[in-house]
């Protein structure tokens, strides 16, 4: 598949979920590098930088995307020959995809260890990392059930309930606004992440913060499953994570909206959950309190503020 096609599929959400977006972006850069005709080192480097920009322009929120692009293209400008640069992109992309897959497996092990027999877990959206933990707990023979939300307007909850059903996990499917009503039936909340800030705030599918708030009120633990490449080092320098707003036609048809001239439709698709409503963030490097997010940035994303500041 061409890089432009991958970018289009990320934009239109055929490829979605922060981890998958990251893996597909790294693979697209590798395939693009391999497909380019020989044209000299500087032409190769500038074409790869252009390709990176195409991918980065697709969706703004999941920081896994810029992290994957940076990891895949790291050191490119220091390469001495075009073939060295091409080989570097390939090996870094392959390493990233393999590490990402392993990270989700490790996160699943840690999440499953927090799920006890008889528990009901509430989840939101369709997170591969969160689901991996739930599926592993079931594989381990634990008798568990799940409460899964619908996730308006894209209904990612449908993907989640299909997977849970395939694994014969008893699941209750609820509309997003029923979360507080059902929180008393849950023992634990597990969600994924699109970005984690330096202070341990978690950016995830719109509605996550309401779920965390309801969980906090009901004294239920909130566990976030997030690979280390979901952490956003630039937030340590005061940068904000942009919250994507998608077309309003996803919420209300243009025909209906046209008849309601005084109504403004908004469609932000992510929100920010403050660290005080999160009990633990599970990464492949271990489970951490949200306040330890900076450590992950330093140790696993080689983040050095002195190098980043002009
Ligand atoms: C997906 C979403 C997921 C995270 C984590 O939003 O919010 O919870 O991306 O997913 P969208 P994963 O459907 O808009 O991409 O654990 O699979 O990386």
Q: What are the defining features of this structure?
A:
single chain, about 300 residues, alpha/beta, Four Helix Bundle (Hemerythrin (Met), subunit A), Rossmann fold, 2 domains, seven-stranded mixed sheet, three-stranded antiparallel sheet, binds ribulose-1,5-diphosphate
Q: How would you sum up this structure, described in words?
A:
The protein is of the alpha/beta class. It has two domains: 3-105, translation initiation factor eif-2b, domain 1 (Four Helix Bundle (Hemerythrin (Met), subunit A), Up-down Bundle); 107-307, Rossmann fold (3-Layer(aba) Sandwich). The protein has helices at residues 3-11, 18-35, 41-56, 64-73, 82-113, 128-139, 157-166, 179-183, 208-217, 254-258, 293-300, 305-308, and strands at 120-123, 145-149, 171-174, 188-191, 195-196, 202-205, 221-225, 270-273, 280-283, 286-288. The longest helix is centred in the first third of the chain and has 32 residues, at 82-113. The radius of gyration is 20 Å and the shape is globular. The chain starts with a helix and ends with a helix. The mean pLDDT is 96. Bound molecules: ribulose-1,5-diphosphate. Residues 16-20, 62, 125, 127-130, 156, 192-194, 204-205, 269 line the site of ribulose-1,5-diphosphate.
């Amino acid at each position: 598949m061409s890089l432009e096609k991958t970018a289009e599929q990320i934009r239109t959400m055929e490829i979605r979920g922060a981890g998958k977006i990251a893996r597909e972006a790294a693979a697209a850069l590798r395939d693009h590098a391999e497909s380019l005709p020989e044209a000299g080192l500087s032409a190769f480097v500038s074409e790869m930088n252009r390709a990176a920009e195409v991918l980065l322009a697709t969706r703004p929120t999941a920081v896994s995307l810029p992290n994957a692009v940076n990891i895949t293209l790291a050191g490119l400008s220091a390469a001495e020959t075009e073939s060295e640069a091409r080989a570097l992109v390939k090996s870094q992309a392959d390493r990233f995809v393999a590490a990402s897959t392993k990270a989700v497996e490790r996160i699943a092990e840690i999440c499953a260890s927090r799920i006890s027999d008889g528990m009901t877990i509430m989840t939101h959206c369709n997170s591969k990392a969160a689901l991996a933990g739930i599926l592993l707990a079931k594989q381990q023979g634990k008798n568990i059930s799940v409460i899964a939300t619908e996730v308006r307007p894209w209904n990612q909850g449908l993907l989640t309930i299909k997977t849970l059903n395939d694994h014969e996990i008893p699941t209750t499917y609820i509309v997003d606004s029923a979360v507080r009503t059902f929180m008393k039936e849950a023992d634990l909340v597990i969600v994924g992440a699109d970005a984690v800030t330096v202070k341990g705030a978690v950016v995830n599918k719109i509605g996550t913060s309401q779920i965390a708030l309801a969980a906090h009120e009901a004294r239920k633990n909130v566990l976030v499953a997030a690979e280390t490449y979901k952490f956003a080092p630039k937030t340590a320098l005061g940068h904000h994570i942009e919250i994507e707003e998608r077309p309003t036609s996803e919420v209300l048809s243009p025909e209906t909206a046209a008849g309601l001239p005084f109504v403004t439709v908004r469609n932000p698709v992510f929100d920010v959950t403050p660290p005080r409503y999160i009990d633990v963030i599970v990464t492949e490097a271990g489970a951490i309190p949200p306040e330890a997010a900076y450590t992950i940035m330093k140790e696993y994303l080689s983040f050095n503020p002195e190098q980043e500041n002009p």
